[in-house]
Amino acid sequence: MKLQEYQAKNILSEYGAKIQAGKVATTADEVEKIAEEFDSMVVIKSQVLVGGRGKAGGIKLAKTPEEAREKAEKILGMQIKGLTVKKVLVAKAVDIADEAYLGLILDRNTKKIVMMASPQGGIDIEQVAKETPEQIFKIYIDPFLGIRPYSARYLIGKLYDNPDLIKQGIELAMKLYNIFVGVDAQLVEVNPLVITEQGEMICVDSKIILDDSGLMKHPDYLKLRNKDEYSQEELEAKEMGLSYVQLTGNIGCVVNGAGLSMATMDLVKHYGGEPANFLDVGGSSNPKKVVKALDIITRDKNVKVILFNIFGGITRCDDIAKGLIDAIAEFKPNIPIIARLTGTNETEGRKILKDADIPVFASMDDVVEQAVNLAK
Ligand code: GDP
Ligand code: MN
User: Which pLDDT does position 359 carry in this prediction?
Assistant: First the structure.
């Protein structure tokens, strides 16, 4: 679960990390009032679940409350990477002397939490990793020992020479690790980690992603869920027990099982096509799921062909075929649908589709190649 900047910073603050004073607003009026109250230069920050808000014009400094109102009018309602800005964080602006990066993720290869630091702060860490990978420093944290001060000292020493800053940095590194473990995060990131002209260390921007599987331990965080994290289609799919991720290609895929879904998408790419989505109808044979799957996929106007790839195990091919016939009757899609059915009750399943003039294949290669041709 992705958190907005202000939600992430509240957690940082709870754990004792230093952030700017700030308040959330949804109207330009409120922004003006907050700026008056702070009686200092403010920064108005769009709260959307994507990075690069600064570059997109979603972060603006304002010297006076009037200016804050004007800037807020521009930011509220603007689109950033397809998301509409409905909320802004109004924070006391800081004078930046230095920007660094400090963050934690789980490294699946070493099965350890890795803390990364870079003196190249303020820009996307992905960009730093690509262009100047030697500017990223890492420590791998033993899950039994936790983060040790000497280890944090090594990492923070790559950012600062000043002993006072190193001391503050070590303390912050330990706090960020405590957050990562404490909230069951997948990502905790501070970028930029700022040193002000006055020599203070402040977390100016933060990103936290909570592990959905850990949320049952933190029922309070459930209400932090942002509707924007998922599209309407993704939410409906979740309700129906489908795993659905929208992509940008033109081949709609309905597959059972996550592994087969991934393999299908690989094969689509292999034959020169682009999948429009990842959609796993799961391991049960519930025709209603197929109806929902088709409903969701046909809403995507990019889709030129729909490809069913079903391996019947627990799922019965005839159930899928029946679901497909029901779905076609309901949504009358005007794009071609082709299917591959193998496994449990494949003969019955294929017969149902053949009788309805839906091209049906036994081989995965054949059906994917055909789908790619139809999409062209
Ligand atoms: P992002 O673009 O979504 O990562 O948003 P950030 O909060 O990281 O802001 C982007 C950039 O805006 C930062 O790297 C800073 O250079 C600048 N910025 C943000 N807050 C302040 C502030 O309080 N004062 C100043 N001077 N610059 C700021
Ligand atoms: Mn940032």
Answer: 96
Q: What is the pLDDT of residues 361-374, one digit of tens each?
A: 999 999 999 999 99
**How would DSSP label each residue in 246-263?**
E-SSSEEEEESSHHHHHH
Query: Six-digit token pair at 44?
Result: 């108005």
Is 101 catalytic? The answer is yes
- Calculate the average pLDDT of the chain: 94
What's the rounded Cα separation, in Å, for the pair 54 and 76? 14
Q: Give CA 39 to chain center in angstroms.
A: 36
Task: Delineate the domains of the chain, giving CATH numbers in brackets.
Answer: 21-92 (3.30.1490.20), 96-222 (3.30.470.20), 231-375 (3.40.50.261)
| pLDDT on residue 55 | 92
Q: Would you say the CB of residue 99 lies under 6 angstroms from ligand 1?
A: yes
pTM metric for this prediction: 0.80
346 to 83, 338, 349, 356, 362: CA distances (angstroms): 43, 15, 5, 15, 9
Q: Are 280 and 242 in contact (CB under 8 A)?
A: yes
Pick from 45, 221, 185, 163: nearest CA to 105? 185
pLDDT in tens, 55-81: 999 999 999 999 999 999 999 999 998
- 189: annotated active-site residue: yes
Higher pLDDT, 294 or 190: 190
230 pLDDT above the threshold of 90: no
Cβ of 49 less than 6 Å from ligand 1? no
Residue 153 has pLDDT above 70, yes or no: yes
Give the list of residues 6+ apart from residue 120 with CB closer than 8 angstroms, or none: 100, 101, 128, 132, 135, 136
Residue to probe by mutation, ligand 1, list 18, 43, 101, 190, most atoms within 8 Å of CB? 43
Decide whether any atom of ligand 1 lies within 6 Å of the 43 Cβ. Answer: yes
Catalytic residue among 5, 32, 189, 233: 189
Amino acid at 92: K
Q: Write down the catalytic residue from 101, 160, 177, 221.
A: 101
Q: Report whether residue 51 contacts ligand 1, using a CB cutoff of 6 Å.
A: yes
